[in-house]
Amino acid sequence: MDIRNIAIIAHVDHGKTTLVDRILHQVKLFRDNQEVKDLILDSSDLERERGITILSKNVSVIYKNTKINIIDTPGHSDFGGEVERVLNMADGVLLIVDAFEGPMPQTRFVLQKALELGLKPIVVVNKVDKLNCNPEETNELVFDLMFSLDATEEQLNFPTVYGSSKQGWMGADWETPTTDITYLLDTIIDYFEPPKNNPGTLQIQISSLDYSSYTGRIAVGKIHRGSIKMGDHVSIVQRNGQINKSVVKELYTFEGLGKEKTKAEIKSGEIVAVMGLENFDIGDTIADFEEPIALKPISVDEPSMSMLFTINNSPFFGKEGKYVTSRHLRNRLFKETEKNLALRVKETDSPDKLIVYGRGILHLSILVETMRREGYEMQLGQPKVVIKEIDGFKHEPMELLYINVPEKFSGRVIESITKRKGDLLNIETKNDRINLEFKISARGLIGLTNPLLTATEGEAVISHRFKGYEPWKGEIQSKRNGALIAMETGTAIAYSIDKLQNRGKFFVSPNDEIYTGQVIGESTRYDDLVLNLIKTKKLSNVRASGTDDKIAIVPAIKFSLEEAMEYVGEDEYVELTPKSIRLRKIILNEIDRKRKRKSM
Ligand SMILES: Nc1nc2c(ncn2[C@@H]2O[C@H](COP(=O)(O)OP(=O)(O)OP(=O)(O)O)[C@@H](O)[C@H]2O)c(=O)[nH]1
Ligand SMILES: [Mg+2]
């Protein structure tokens, strides 16, 4: 059977996974009366809740006697490295672009990677059902973008398909809806060539990892040359040139939504999953047993951010979690590095503390959230960007930041970003909204999302991408307000909260259990302030009038995990249990905190 290997790439939320849904339905992968959820490939709980793709996934469909292997990729920039790697398995890409938003930063990033690999694109202008969208202009902008990225003549000759994944149609013209997506499937089959038969000794580059609790790690890649079958003896050429001998215990191909075990000999061009190999990593080559020849190693992204992970030692530790010891934490984190490529774990001089390196707040928060759900408790320090010494000088990661807001907010946005030493590079007006492009240090980005959303009444669309390392920009004034800190352990009383509302905004509600040193709110000033929230009103027999003071308490601010990670101060921890997210001072006792400050 003929094969087409395609990857679906786009900026976050432009509709990749929804389109895969449509393809799966079109080829009747499900019975007519079978109940199927939306976003089938976003199968993990976290993916479903957040509506984002975290891990790329392989599926396949059969259409007109051709097998189409489809690789769905994540669109968020924290997972950009994942896209880059899995593109190695594709022979062509579907570049999806939202007809309303047009090409966005991550569109550029993933497109550039695809073009560099010499892949031909089909452009899918999606979401043409949206009001006030600009499908034709979007198509032209994509052309301009490709041109500026030095696409070849052949790549520039891309076909464009218009449609709405949500409504379930694709066609040649956006103003003439069709009834299904056959037009897209036909374009895929006609425009992309089948992978070339490439005889010779075996070469498979491991482009992705899968994991099964029974068999352990699974290597996934496209057979670049030769063939492979179950039981074969193979060599694994590692990135550093070392060669390990191994055996293919089981071989799988991707069929529909799953993998199917095969005893057949599978030839070049097909994507396979290999089980039972030992000592391998992404980028290694599975090669001939006798004459191993490696493919050019693919680069794995360097982590750009680090965070301290430590055991929960707050007064409330162990109340909600199952796994709380440093051994639990350590084992879990090191296990994660086996499949989470961009993640590194480094020991410190304390067995209770580990430094975890990742690609950004989202990348790290996904891990933390997964661990919470498994029953872990832990504490996190303030996130730090990875600083490098280059030619003897301190360098820091810089990001390109893109913000789209209604015009009336642009002043506020520019002001708050220049305050963090961001440089405005470009302004572009589009209808009544404005696109702003900045260069800003990754440091300056931490904790920026929330204030920006507040300043723009939730209207700002924010995205960023890594630009490169540049000399250290000096101190950044982005000091947040001081913390309100609990003086005593006990139950927060409505009466006290009410009386102290003029001191700031609270993170805790009446009847919450709090402990000494917990950060219970944000002060209106820059200094920290210790408050007693557990004091009840003195009972007195004499009342001035028959009625009590009316209590009207502003609802507490509840941080999401990412918000807490971006908010936490240098002398604070985020305390996490399966049920709670709290902020606390690392040193709980006020006098000890003062002593420490004096000694610095
Ligand atoms: N109006 C409209 N909305 C769409 C269309 N296609 C997708 N969406 C919506 O856009 C949102 C994002 O869709 P997804 O398919 O999850 O996007 P994605 O590109 O896979 O997102 P990531 O994997 O997180 O990068 C969902 O709410 C979809 O319902 C479309 O054609 N029209
Ligand atoms: Mg997706």
Explained architecture:
It is a single chain. This protein is α+β, with helices and mostly antiparallel strands and 600 residues long. Helix content is 22%, strand content 32%. The strands form six sheets. Strands 19, 20, 21, 22, 23, 29, 31, 33, 34, 35 and 36 form an eleven-stranded mixed beta sheet that branches. The longest helix has 14 residues, at 135-148. Mean pLDDT is 91; it is low at 542-547. Residues 16-17, 42, 53 line the site of magnesium ion (MG).
Quick description:
By secondary structure, the protein is α+β, with helices and mostly antiparallel strands.
**How much β-strand is present in the residues?**
25-35%
The helix content is: 10-25%
The SS-based structural class is: alpha+beta
Task: Let me know the number of strands.
Answer: 36
Could you name the ranges where pLDDT drops below 50 across 5 or more consecutive residues? 542-547
Per the principal axes of the C-alpha atoms, what is the gross shape? globular
Present as ligands are: guanosine-5'-triphosphate, magnesium ion
Largest sheet: 11 strands, mixed
Q: In angstroms, what is the radius of gyration?
A: 27 Å
Count of helical regions: 15
End-to-end separation: 71 Å
- Taking all residues together, what is the mean pLDDT? 91
List the helices and strands and how they pair.
Blueprint: E1 2-10, H1 16-26, H2 45-50, E2 57-63, E3 66-72, H3 80-86, E4 92-98, H4 105-116, E5 120-126, H5 135-148, H6 153-156, E6 160-164, E7 169-171, H7 182-191, E8 203-205, E9 208-212, E10 216-225, E11 227-228, E12 233-237, E13 243-247, E14 250-255, E15 258-261, E16 266-267, E17 271-275, E18 285-288, E19 305-310, H8 326-336, E20 344-347, E21 353-358, H9 361-374, E22 378-380, E23 384-385, E24 388-390, E25 393-406, H10 410-419, E26 423-430, E27 433-441, H11 442-445, H12 449-455, E28 461-471, E29 483-486, E30 490-491, H13 494-499, E31 504-506, E32 513-514, E33 518-523, E34 529-531, H14 561-567, E35 572-576, E36 581-585, H15 590-599
Parallel strand pairs: 1-3, 1-4, 4-5, 5-6, 29-34
Antiparallel strand pairs: 2-3, 6-7, 8-10, 8-18, 9-10, 10-17, 11-16, 12-13, 12-18, 14-15, 14-17, 19-21, 19-22, 19-23, 20-21, 22-35, 24-25, 25-27, 25-28, 26-27, 29-33, 30-32, 31-33, 33-36, 35-36
Helix pairs in contact: 9-14
The chain binds guanosine-5'-triphosphate (GTP) and magnesium ion.
Magnesium ion (MG) binds at residues 16-17, 42, 53.
